[in-house]
Design a protein that fits this description.
By secondary structure, the protein is mostly helical. 65% of the residues lie in helices and 0% in strands. The protein has one domain. Helix 1 packs across helix 7, helix 1 runs antiparallel to helix 10 and helix 5 packs antiparallel against helix 8. The longest helix has 40 residues. The chain is elongated and about 75 Å long. One of its GO terms (molecular function) is molecular adaptor activity.
């Protein structure tokens, strides 16, 4: 169990190391020809190690158990694993990220406009929005993608390896083990893509709110308060006292609700590590 946790933590760190280059590639994959389709046929270039993953350097971080009987007999088939993982991620990432980011941005925007209506500092508002939307989008993506990614990894691996006339039992063993071993890596990459897109989208969604605070301060020298929330009818007058916006912005205890989003473990591996330490 400890070894599995260490492997998951290492893969989470690897996904962070892949960084912006990986998520930049992932960000354009919604239009990929592979999205929603089965893997392309096996070709000699793949077995020769000439086919590259779309996600940069993914093969360096994919876990391949060399002790599996199939890989002992036919080590060249190990080259299929990163290609299958790459295609599986590309197949599911677009709908997962889109759904997670949409829900997170709508939720964050509405809460920001209410809770920070009396907050004149747009930077404080921006920081709270980023913390909240990152955590919501990442958590939603992580929960949403795990099972579809496991299935997609298995499907792509089977589709590629079946063409090599492999014993069905050995094929199933490799498919199950490799899919499980690399699930955390794929989930973390998808989570990272979701959090980065969410930050960009919430910045755009709240741009008018940020701009009006800055402009009002520069033109009048006075703090800006959004009084429209009291007249628009969007929020009931029966809101509990603790939830009503007040001049001067949020109190420290209320701001801590948003600050705490930055303290929540962001990946499944981190959650499992934390639970193991308790």
């Amino acid at each position: 169990a400890l070894a599995a946790q260490q492997q998951q933590a290492a893969q989470a760190a690897a996904a962070q190391t892949l960084g912006g280059a990986a998520t930049a590639s992932l960000g354009t994959l919604g239009n990929s020809a592979l999205s929603g389709q089965q893997a392309a046929p096996l070709d000699p270039a793949l077995l020769a190690g000439q086919e590259q993953t779309v996600i940069p350097n993914l093969a360096s971080y994919v876990v391949i158990n060399s002790g599996l009987q199939l890989f002992t007999q036919q080590p060249q088939l190990k080259r299929i694993v990163p290609i299958a993982i790459d295609r599986a991620i590309r197949e599911i990432i677009s709908p997962v990220v889109e759904r997670s980011v949409t829900i997170s941005c709508v939720t964050t925007r509405e809460l920001m406009l209410k809770d920070f209506a009396m907050e004149p500092d747009e930077q404080r508002m921006r920081k709270a929005a980023q913390l909240m939307v990152q955590n919501l989008a990442g958590s939603l993506a992580l929960v949403t993608c795990k099972e579809p990614l496991r299935v997609a990894c298995g499907n792509h691996m089977r589709s590629l390896m079946q063409q090599a006339a492999i014993d069905p039992q050995l094929l199933e063993q490799v498919t199950q083990v490799c899919s499980s071993d690399n699930l955390e890596l794929g989930c973390t990459l998808i989570e990272k893509a979701a959090t980065e897109k969410a930050v960009r989208d919430i910045e755009e969604a709240l741009a008018p709110a940020f701009a009006i605070r800055r402009k009002h301060r520069e033109q009048t020298g006075l703090p800006y308060y959004d009084m429209s929330i009291f007249t628009s009818g969007r929020y009931p007058a029966s809101l509990p006292e603790a939830l009503r916006p007040k001049p001067g912005g949020l109190q420290p205890a209320q701001r801590r609700v948003y600050e705490d989003f930055g303290r929540i473990p962001r990946t499944a591996a981190m959650v499992q590590q934390q639970q193991a330490q308790q």
